[in-house]
Amino acid sequence: MEFHAIAGAVATLREACTESGPELATSLLAELDELALTLVQQCAAAVQSREDPRLLLAHAKRTEELYRHAIREQLRCAAAAELGAAHALPPETYDEIAAGTCDYQGTAELTGGRSCYQDTSDLLAGWLNIDYFEARTRVADAHLLVARPTMAGTGTTARYSQLAESFDATDIDPRAVRQVARKLAKAEGPDLISEGTPSEPWLRCPDGRTVEERATDLLHGEDPRTAAKQISELLRQQAPAQQSDPELGLFARPTRGAVHVFTLHTTAAGAELIRSAMAQADNPRTQAGAEARRQRTNLATGQEPEAADGDTPSWLSTDQPAPEWAGVNEPSPNLGTPPATEPEPAPESGVTVAERRLNAVLDKLGAVLPGAREANDPTELAPVPELAALSEPSATPRRIAPEVIVHINLEDLTNLADGRGITAHGLTVGPADLRQMLCEAEVVPMVLNGRGQVLDVGRAQRLFPPPIKKAIIARDRGCIVPGCTAPVEHLEAHHYKKSWKDGGHTTVGNGCALCSAHHHAVHAGQLQVIEHAGLPHVLLPAHQDPLQIPRRNNYWRQVA
After folding, report:
1. CB atoms within 10 A of CB 227
2. Residue 248: is it exposed, middle or buried by C-beta count within 10 angstroms (0-12/13-18/19+)?
3. DSSP-assigned letters across all residues of 493-545
4. For the chain, first and last CA: distance in Å?
5. What one-character DSSP code corresponds to residue 316?
6. What DSSP designation does 419 have?
7. Which of 20, 107, 136, 214 has the fewest CB atoms below 10 angstroms from its CB?
8. How deeply is 183 buried, as exposed, middle or buried, from its count of CB atoms within 10 A (0-12, 13-18, 19+)?
9. β-bridge mates for residue 381, sequence order
10. What is the SS3 assignment for 181?
11. d(CA 517, CA 525)
């Protein structure tokens, strides 16, 4: 067939499908459905053979759209099969459909005797050749987002009508909506529609709105990562009050091979300390991070010193004592002979053994906090290339100095009995931990208005000094690019209104927080930072956001 003939056929087919779809005969719809699958397969093979990256990207986008459409259709088919009692068709009807000889004229007749399948889940598992539990999950999800059967067998609305609208929206990933519906159903309990009383959404936010409504707003208004994080926090806040928290402490678990396993249970204050240390160790651009990486690389080889593999070589053996400067003749203060059969000592002063171990770990982490920043700043960039920092230990290795930053509203600061704070890593700190942290911490007040703008912190030189950088991070909470999850320890300050070389000032108002990757993207012209409503916002590339809406990252902010 010539090219113009194919183009004409495609145009005619498109018009028939878009304008006359509902009026097409049932048999023709079945043929078009099969033809659509053949076209998809043939087009995919042709695109892959072209090896044109532009065509491949266009094909990848269409493939993702088809995949999302397939997810929606899986649940719609499950709901329709259940409401239409497709599991009760005669055996010969299934054979005719599979062979392509089924006559779709007239109304489908159901069997009057024993059917081949017990229910819709059994039918989907056998007909589609999928796992039964996958089929049952599709039916359950269809009840949440498509339709539910009543006691009389008729269909009614989905359990979560607002999420059902989001599930049908083409600009929302149906997988995300599906996960939210499952979590919400688990929190709200089983649906009682089979008993004649459909269950309605009842979990509510502090402002009176249902959690379903708030979750729907987050799905439409935030990037996928931020929406998932904040929805999980919403559901976590709805946990039953009577559910007791696990015991605090450091617990030894069975050794796996040569690896010793411990489980740590701690409060938000301790978790923030540990998260800060982890984030600093993960940052290769600082001297402390480079040192941690070098040590971690050596340990990752799994090799012990040569003498540890067996007996000491003869050329290293001697009957003479070691010289005094070696320091090996003195007993080590950190080693001791553990008692062979001594029972575990009883808790003293109300502190359990697990809590004592936890306190020892946290004290060790926090020992470098007071004054450590002034004497040995672990966030200082390494003056040597990264590879050199990894290969050669420095004379004075940089230590990890965990830093805990807590954001507290003024009303919470004046009401410490009930006040709460949120850490730089997004952890909520309760009243008890907040009071203790305020007693031991150096409080650096920063005044922000309702929009989160820092009103007064100061001014400095070309490079952003720590006070100015902390103020910027306190305002932005993280990298301002939507969806970025870089921790605060990895952030850099950027002159976004006017660069330094063009006469810009190093002030809070002229700075914004960016991770290293997005900082480079801004300088490369791939991202644009503008001022909007008094705060720095990001304009994503036009192919990602055709509407060019100014956006800010809310990943690290507390859910409202």
Report:
1. 24
2. middle
3. EEE-SS-GGGT---BSTTEEEEEHHHHHHHHTTSSEEEEETTEEEEE--TTT-
4. 61
5. G
6. -
7. 107
8. middle
9. 286
10. helix
11. 13
Q: What does the angle CA 140 – CA 144 – CA 146 come to, to the nearest 5 degrees? A: 100
The first and second tokens of residue 405, run together, are: 């930053």
Question: What does the alpha-carbon distance between residue 147 and residue 73 come to, in Å, rounded to a whole number?
Answer: 13
- Reduced to 3 states (helix: H, G, I; strand: E, B; else coil), residue 241 is coil
Helices (H), 397-458: 410-413, 431-440
Tell me the two tokens of residue 538: 């990001």
- Residues 164/146, Cβ–Cβ less than 8 Å: yes
Residue 515: count of CB within 10 angstroms of its CB: 20
pLDDT per position as a tens digit, 36-95: 889 899 999 999 998 899 999 999 999 999 999 999 999 999 999 999 999 999 999 999
Q: What is the DSSP string of 320-359?
A: SPPPGGG--SSPPTT-----SSPPPPPPBTTB-HHHHHHH
Closest CA to 437 of 311, 223, 273: 273
Query: In the structure encoding, which two tokens stand for residue 143, read together?
Result: 């009840």
Four-point Cα dihedral 15, 20, 25, 30, nearest 10: 50
Nearest Cα residue to 480 out of 444, 445, 522, 431 = 522
* CA distances to 238, 359, 479 from 447, in Å: 32, 33, 20
- Do 422 and 268 touch, CB atoms closer than 8 A? no
Q: What is the full DSSP assignment across 361-377? A: HHHHHHTT-TTHHHH--
Phi, psi values for residue 347, rounded to 5°: -60, 140
d(CA 139, CA 152): 18
Helix and strand element counts for the chain (H, E): 19, 11
* pTM for the predicted model, two decimal places: 0.68
The pLDDT score that the predictor gives to residue 287 is 72
Backbone φ and ψ for 210, nearest 5 degrees, come out as -70, 155
CA 340 vs CA 337, 343, 344, 346, 507: distances in Å: 9, 9, 11, 17, 63
Phi, psi of 403 (to 5 degrees): -130, 130
Helices 53-83 and 120-128: angle between axes, nearest 10 degrees: 140
E-state strands within 349-426? 406-407, 421-423
Cα–Cα–Cα angle for 551, 555, 560, rounded to 5 degrees = 95
Tokens encoding 292: 């941690």
CA 152: distance to chain centroid? 42
Is residue 165 within 8 Å of residue 159, measured between CB atoms?
no
DSSP secondary structure, 94-127, as one string: HHHHHHT----SSPPPPPSS--S-SSHHHHHHHH
Q: What is the pLDDT of residues 212-271, one digit of tens each?
A: 999 999 999 999 999 999 999 888 887 665 567 788 888 888 988 877 888 889 888 888
Give the span between the Cα atoms of 409 and 175, in whole angstroms.
Answer: 36
